[in-house]
Amino acid sequence: MTATPLSARRWRGVPVALAALVACVVAVQFVPAQGYYLNILMQAATYGIAVIGIVVVLGYCGQITLAQAAFFGIGAYGVALGTVDFGLNFFVALAIGVLLSGLLGLLLGVASLRLGGHYLAMVTISFQQILTLVLTNWISLTHGPDGVPGVPRAAIFGISFAGGEAYLGLCLVVLVLITLYSWRLKSSRLGRAMQAVRDNELAASTSGIDIFRTKVLAFGISAILGGIGGGLFAGGFSYISPDQFSFPESIVLLTMALLGGVQSPIGALFGTTLLIILPEWLRFLRQVYLAVYGAAVILIMVFLPDGIWGWATQRLRRTPPAPPEVAPLPLLSVKGEATDEPVLEIRGLAKHFGGLRALDGVDLTVRRGTVHALIGPNGSGKSTFINVVTGLYRPTAGRVSFLGQDITYAAPYVRNRLGLARTFQNIRVFRGMTVLDNVVVGAERPGNDIAEDPEAVTERALAALEFVGLRGDAYRMVGTLSYGHQRYVEIARALASSPACVLLDEPAAGLNMTEKQELGVLLRRLKGHGLTILVIDHDMNLVEQVADHITVLNFGRRIADGDPRSVLDSPDVIAAYLGQPQEKQGSHEAA
């Protein structure tokens, strides 16, 4: 039996979407032909499209945006000005508005490279305010505060959508298609990259994900969806003005996403519909209806932090099926032998933090098929070393070479794509994803032999989980696993990427005695199949079990290097661990 392909998982929603599409078309025929009902439904449909854009950028990628009303407005003005002032076809004008929204969204996404949290929120607020000022004051183009009246509705191939019911049907069809797109996006390669960035940027970057590209794409997609919603809104209401696309409207759109469930497009639709219809339901309360409305929203958000849809899915979640049997990892079919061929070469590596020399001229060579251990007392520079080698820190001096290529200044995702994988001392899994999807992120890294085959990616990920004993937990949320099992998920993610070399940073940290013994067995199995490993750990028993070669650091300098027995018996190493003064510092530099 083979694993369910990722592509098949993405298409599971198609029958539901098609059924929803048919239901929308049929339902429109029964909507009362009164402007009141049509306007409410049209507003819900067009706002829903923009809110799904927030789901993409915030729910999937974790990037805060308070400017969705700005992109909504750009799409609306694209349609209004294009049709009224320039006489363009509705769909041509819509395309122009959406294209402009997307370009500005990409530019806004560039700001996310160095900004995050409240700083990024401030940038998006500033963008929103600037757009409002432009729409209000550039009278010769935007018509200023008076707005643009008489916006015509769409017509194509002789089919007119001038009637309210027909235009509402068009909006609902677009809404269903965009909902389907965003649903499939979440389980796509790009969607998993976004979720990985949301959950842990460091782990994502060392798993082959280009953080900057992923964030920019998320902002661009979100802006495009905002532009589509705004363009349809302009046609639906035939009049627009700057106050309809101001900062308070961005807050409303964000609230809709949070209320329904920001990590699901279905939740976004629930939140949008509720916030548009709820005030209408409460109007019978007259003067107090706004207070009741506000209180209802606050109570829902306080007691349902994951939104209405998130709460519902947690209550209705069924026990997942048992994962299928899969073939073993390819590396397990290889008979591994150590060679003298260098895989990772470090020469003169230095890293200074001001006056502190965390690394000071370290040389190290990891040879193919060996387990190379890097040890040293606390504060010796081990973590700094692995962070420099994997690109999280830039070296002050020295050179890093991997498989004959100079990667000294390469980005972390570039190093991973070349075959350099790592785990972290402090566990860095993607907590908003399942165990299987965590490992799939590693399996589908660009450069892996099966990265472009969704079925093979799933099988490789399940095989890696089988190797570490977690295949039965594949469909569980990774945050529900024990600490030790989450560490195994990290190792499985690294193995699924088919690396040329794996760097294990304190893999035994936080494990109990039984788990440490299991880890030792696992590392010895990997060693027997020729995987090149650089392991950092304080557990000397584990190091002695698996290491072919040991390098010792102390105060950022290499004090010993050689076979395990000679290194561990070195007086300098013993002195470093016992805290005794060394008679001849560095006497074993070339041991």
Describe this protein's structure:
The protein is α/β, with parallel strands linked by helices and 591 residues long. Among the domains are: 6-246, no CATH class; 338-419 and 534-591, Rossmann fold (3-Layer(aba) Sandwich), CATH 3.40.50.300. It has 24 helices and 14 strands. The chain has helices at residues 6-11, 14-28, 35-60, 68-84, 90-110, 117-137, 139-142, 164-186, 189-199, 201-205, 211-237, 247-260, 265-281, 289-303, 307-316, 382-389, 412-418, 435-443, 454-467, 483-496, 513-528, 540-546, 564-568, 571-578; strands at 148-149, 155-156, 159-160, 239-240, 342-353, 356-367, 371-375, 397-402, 405-406, 420-422, 501-505, 532-536, 549-554, 557-562. The strands form four sheets. Strands 10-11-12-7-13-14 form a six-stranded mixed β-sheet, sandwiched between helices. It has a four-stranded antiparallel β-sheet with strand order 6-5-8-9, with helices on one face. Strand 11 (501-505), helix 21 and strand 12 form a beta-alpha-beta unit. Helix 4 (68-84) crosses helix 11 (211-237) and helix 12 (247-260) packs parallel to helix 15 (307-316). The protein starts with 5 loop residues before the first helix and ends in a 13-residue tail after the last helix.
Topology of this protein?
Elements: H1 6-11, H2 14-28, H3 35-60, H4 68-84, H5 90-110, H6 117-137, H7 139-142, E1 148-149, E2 155-156, E3 159-160, H8 164-186, H9 189-199, H10 201-205, H11 211-237, E4 239-240, H12 247-260, H13 265-281, H14 289-303, H15 307-316, E5 342-353, E6 356-367, E7 371-375, H16 382-389, E8 397-402, E9 405-406, H17 412-418, E10 420-422, H18 435-443, H19 454-467, H20 483-496, E11 501-505, H21 513-528, E12 532-536, H22 540-546, E13 549-554, E14 557-562, H23 564-568, H24 571-578
Parallel strand pairs: 7-12, 7-13, 10-11, 11-12
Antiparallel strand pairs: 1-4, 2-3, 5-6, 5-8, 8-9, 13-14
